[in-house]
Amino acid sequence: MPSSHSAGATSLATFIVLPLIRISRFIWLHCDICAQGVRRQAGELAIHLNMDLAEETK
Question: Which of 20, 32, 35, 42 suits a disulfide with 3, CB 3.0-4.6 Å?
Answer without folding.
Answer: 35
